[in-house]
Amino acid sequence: TPKKLVNSVSGCADDALAGLVSCNPGLRLLQGHRVILRDDLVAVRGRVALLSGGGSGHEPAHAGYVGKGMLTGVVAGAVFTSPSVGSVLAAIRVLTQAGAAGILLIVKNYTGDRLNFGMALERARSEGADVRMVVVGDDCAFATPGKAGRRGICGTVLIHKVAGALAEAGAGLDEIVEKVTAASKAMGTLGLSLSPCSIPGSKPSFQLAEDEMELGLGIHGEAGVCRMKVLPADEAVETMLKHMMDPSNASHISLTPGCSVVLMVNNLGGLSCLELGIVAGAAVSRLESRGIHIARALVGCFMTALEMAGVSLTLMVVDGELLRLIDAKTTAMAWPNIPAGPATTRREEILAPMDVPGKPMDETGTGWKLKSFVTPPMPGFPSGMSHSAGPGVAQVEQVLERVCSTLLDIQDKLNQLDRAAGDGDCGHTHARAAHAIREWMRSCPPPAAPSQLLSCLADLLLEKMGGSSGVLYGLFLTAAARSLRNRSDPAAWADAMDSGIDAMQRYGGAAPGDRTMLDSLCAAAKALHSLRIPGADPLQVLEAAVQSAEVAAEATKHMEAGAGRASYIRSSRLEHPDPGAVAVAAVLGAVLG
Predict the structure, then answer these.
(1) Domains, the chain, ranges and CATH?
(2) With a threshold of 0.70, does the pTM exceed it?
(3) Catalytic residue among 62, 160, 220, 428
(4) What is the rounded distance in angstroms from the CA atom of residue 507 to the CA atom of residue 584?
């Protein structure tokens, strides 16, 4: 496991936010949440407020962009883990109470971020808040983006800037949404990496040979479109630009000679400043050779992937209005405070003075020689179901304890399976759920009524589990609980399973056959339909459901991923079952006992 300079694996995200706030007088933490807000919320009254966020590990994104002229606040999750619905909702409530004239959520296109911010939006709207959401997808990697769409990566920072300048100028919510949506469509980003990254406490997310680099990878270590031998910087940049501008690539950005762009050269975390300068110079040169005017060039760390040694290039086509918004003043600490002006390789050099024989150099006048400078389940099926009132508290506790023990036992296995699809944290995520459930049971007896039990578990996992899995389990359990209200017949469990699956598909976008946890759930649900047959033995039906889920989980190793992070990876590299499907099958087996 790579070395990390942290206090603890579990507390690293909180410690990083605390450190940021302690060093910046314009920032404040929201008590009890990983939320950072501007300290002058009184200035938000009557203006549109902007919220963004996502997993930690992408610093300075997103908290570095909180300030006047950019974001009003951000919501952070654990490393590479989407923030919780509760924290997003808490941030929205604070801004609503501050008198914001509408709130815009700026979300990167990742399933977990969409789900968590989306559910918070729905809850906030039910409370009367005026909230909108813009999902940014600027990745140019995939020639034919799948169902999940283009990933949201470093271009999101430019959207923060454009939206922030508009909000500061007093623009309304509709106008901001319209203009940032248009700007995001004229933007593209592509990454290139020389090394993997690793979340604290885990092994690297993938491996690259000493002589290899990877094109088009994501900011969590998700695989890109191809691996190639390490190229010189000039050739690597040319390869990136060709891919980004290739008309046969459905994700390409359309650039024509004479157009103006903002160029962002982003250090993915572990590239040296020397290398970054070389790449930036190569990008300017290659764009100029195509007749592209680089109206502005921003070079630095904007959205990282922990310690990944790599770079991404972002191009946004701009007109005069967009450029004024990019140039507008901001107090956000991570936005570069540089003179406004174009980038070019054709700057006239200062002539060096001629040496005069026999005369010393005058270091105060015209004789001075300039130096040269180089310029980031569900326990829904209690065993022994009866036609009457369901399980007692002791039986519920036994089932939940078996589920927790099972998830902790398979933590490393799930992480290993998940590394093929990106960040390798599936086991950690399910372990968080197990610890949360145990802590909850120690604090109070769980309700024995099935509907109440599932509702409590839904709230618990939404708050504590994190990631896409947390909100997906939360959606499933919430919908399943509704089906069990005022019902105690065995068929109610079949209905509950179907309702939960419907909710997951409606918001998550996956379907059976997409190589996700749904494959195990749908197989189990089909078997549970036998509960609707009068006289069916519930225990036998549950045994059949567990067997079906296990078979379906194993079968995912032969499927093409159609949703989630794994959908960005070539099927030939997915040699193992989907970790989410494996986890679901294991939970169902634990429920059976």
Answers:
(1) 11-199+206-327 (3.40.50.10440), 391-592 (1.25.40.340)
(2) yes
(3) 220
(4) 19
